[in-house]
Amino acid sequence: MEADKNESRGKVGSQALPAGQDKVDSVPHTPCTILESLPKSVKRRVNALKQLQVQCAHIEAKFYEEVHELERKYATLYQPLFDKRRDVVTGTVEPTDEECEWHSDREEEEELSEELKKKACVEEAKEEGAPEEDPKGIPEFWLTIFRSVDMLSDMLQEHDEPILKHLQDIKVKFSEPGQPMSFTLEFHFEPNSYFTNTVLTKVYKMKSEPDQADPFSFEGPEIVDCEGCEINWNKGKDVTVKTIKKKQKHKGRGTVRTITKQVPNDSFFNFFKPIKVSSDGEMDEDSEFTLAADFEIGHFFRERVVPRAVLYFTGEALEDDESFEEEEVEEGEEEVRAASPVCVLEVMEIIQEHLGFIGGVGNAFPCCAIGPW
């Protein structure tokens, strides 16, 4: 029986392979070696497939352009709801009892024991004579979100907080039909003693077209540049700079004088004066990383914070984000363990991409998530 099996294997092994197949099987299967080992006629056909792939990338780019148009259309439907959110937050409108009804899914929070109910009644009786505090709207709504979200709290400084107490709304505006793809973040402030602007803006420019030099890298629209705005600070109120005093000693006379000068200061409001993308695309590593982080923050405002603000205020969205990240990390760890040493770097890049990390490649940030919304 064993002899028959060996004979059978021998017959199979002696069968003629297709032309060039023996070469393909005899070398490691990397993209370069596979292509090099193919017969010329097969290479021609592979090139034809690549041409088809480029055409697919261009069709995909058109698809994302239409998605952008669809986002613009639905943004106009969401805006009345966001405007009402602003009015409730600022206290311009008081919601009705019906609008304030909300039934939580968490039974522990809804069903108080009789003992707790009685205790609550006693406390109410004690405080009945004292006037109940009724602040206007929802105080520090946006500031609370900034403090709660790690990505935003990292930019937040103590001297920014009094200013952000005046922030009333954040809006996302899409570019007009027929105009280059972009979106604008609008930060609306009530009159305050810090600056005269009522709206601060940040424009993110996008493109949805394959790179001619590397069309196969196309993964959807990219943020490719951004523009801030000038903040008209009142005298002595600019938190993006600080004044320092320096003593200088004259070399000859030995006299000492004190000079003052302004130097950059850490502040959230530096967000409105971003690094510019150089025309030749050449940037040092630090600038590239800073710009990539800026793109990520703009995308996060657009896709997460603005459409789901109340859930970031209550912390519910933070729980969702943390759960998602934990799942991604677990999956990523499994991939790394299974990967060969050659592929570990590529796998780590994939993990970082899924976790929201942005590389500096091309100074662009993929933002092909469809809708927040």
Automatic annotation (TrEMBL):
InterPro entries: NAP-like_sf (IPR037231), NAP_family (IPR002164). GO terms for cellular component: nucleus. The keyword Acetylation does not apply. The keyword Cell membrane does not apply. Residues 1-28 are annotated as: Disordered. SUPFAM superfamilies: NAP-like (SSF143113). Its main location: nucleus. This is Nucleosome assembly protein 1 like 4. It comes from Paramormyrops kingsleyae.
